[in-house]
Structures are given as structure tokens and as C-alpha cells.
């Protein structure tokens, strides 16, 4: 399997079987994010205790890329501190701009599957929606 089909597989799997798509009743904070250019609309729910993201989920509607990106992001940031989550989200945005090194992309784990989005300008806003919303949520803490 070449790396391209591996990445497609990752996106498809998160889209078909999202692990974090729920309402998370014990969330301590929420943030809405919209991407009008595609019609993606999601709400991020996080349970934050002592500066650590204990649990997280998303709800809403959107295209395959926005939904997969949200699910992958939550997988990555659950259990991390807010500082670390913020660092990872900045790294993700850097990757989407095409400026991240291979080592940095490795740190993003499955989110690296979205690296080729940098060559698809129309889909960039879909891919970054969840991460941008995460950044706003963290800044509001
Ligand atoms: Zn979209």
C-alpha cells in the first residue's frame, strides 16, 4: 500500500466510524465553528480538568474532510494539556500551509493524513475548522 492510499484509508475510517462524535454531557466547555464556504458546522465539547483535556467530542454536520479532521484531532488531544493541544493545533495549521517538516508532521500522528490538503485550497477551510475552533476554545479558557 502506498502512502497516499494509507492516508485515504485513515480519512475514510474516521469518517465512517468516528470515535468522538457525540454530545459529551459532562463537557466543561463548548465552542461552535462554522465554515460557510462549504456548509460545515461543528461544535466542539471538551472536558477540561486541571489544565488537562480529559475527554472530548464533536457534534454537527459537515463534509467528509471536516468530520474526519475533527475526529482525528480529538483522538490526538485527549489526555493532553491545554498548552500541548495548542502547540499541536499550531503545528497542524503550519502543516496545512505547507511549512511543517517531516518530523513535525510525525508528531501529528494520523492528522498527517491531511497534509496533502495544502494542495487543495478549496478544502483547506474544511480541514482546519476543528483546529481553529479548538484554538478559540483554548484562548477563551
Ligand atoms: Zn467542508
Describe this structure in words.
The protein is an alpha+beta fold and 141 residues long. It has a single domain (3-139), classed as Sufe protein. Chain: A, CATH 3.90.1010.10. Helix content is 48%, strand content 19%. The chain contains 5 helices and 3 strands. It has helices at 3-16, 64-77, 82-96, 102-107, 121-139; strands at 29-35, 40-49, 52-61. 35% of the residues are buried. The model has no long low-confidence stretch (mean pLDDT 94). The structure holds zinc ion.
Oligomer: single chain
Report the end-to-end length measured between terminal Cα atoms: 43 Å
Low-confidence stretches: none
Mean pLDDT figure: 94
- Secondary structure class reads alpha+beta
- Count of β-strands: 3
Kindly report the spatial arrangement of strands forming the biggest sheet: 1-2-3
Query: Can you write the helix and strand succession as a string?
Result: HEEEHHHH
Give the gist of this structure.
With 141 residues, the chain is of the alpha+beta class. It has helices spanning 3-16, 64-77, 82-96, 102-107, 121-139; strands at 29-35, 40-49, 52-61.
What keywords describe this structure?
single chain; 141 residues; alpha+beta; Sufe protein. Chain: A; 3-stranded antiparallel β-sheet; 5 helices; 19% strand; binds zinc ion
Please give the structural blueprint.
Elements: H1 3-16, E1 29-35, E2 40-49, E3 52-61, H2 64-77, H3 82-96, H4 102-107, H5 121-139
Helix pairs in contact: 1-2, 2-5, 3-5
The structure holds zinc ion.
Zinc ion is lined by residues 35, 38, 40, 62-63, 65-66, 126.
Amino acid at each position: 500500500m502506498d502512502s497516499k492510499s494509507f492516508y485515504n484509508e485513515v480519512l475514510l475510517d474516521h469518517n465512517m466510524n468516528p470515535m468522538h462524535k457525540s454530545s459529551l454531557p459532562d463537557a466543561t466547555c463548548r465552542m461552535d465553528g462554522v465554515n460557510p464556504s462549504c456548509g460545515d458546522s461543528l461544535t466542539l465539547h471538551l472536558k477540561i480538568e486541571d489544565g488537562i483535556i480529559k475527554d472530548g467530542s464533536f457534534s454537527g454536520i459537515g463534509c467528509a474532510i471536516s468530520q474526519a479532521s475533527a475526529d482525528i484531532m480529538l483522538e490526538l488531544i485527549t489526555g493532553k494539556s491545554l498548552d500541548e493541544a495548542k502547540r499541536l493545533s499550531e503545528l497542524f495549521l503550519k502543516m496545512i500551509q505547507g511549512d511543517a517538516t517531516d518530523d513535525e508532521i510525525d508528531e501529528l500522528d494520523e492528522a498527517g493524513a491531511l497534509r496533502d490538503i495544502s494542495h487543495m485550497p478549496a478544502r483547506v477551510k474544511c480541514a482546519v475548522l476543528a483546529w481553529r475552533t479548538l484554538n478559540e476554545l483554548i484562548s477563551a479558557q
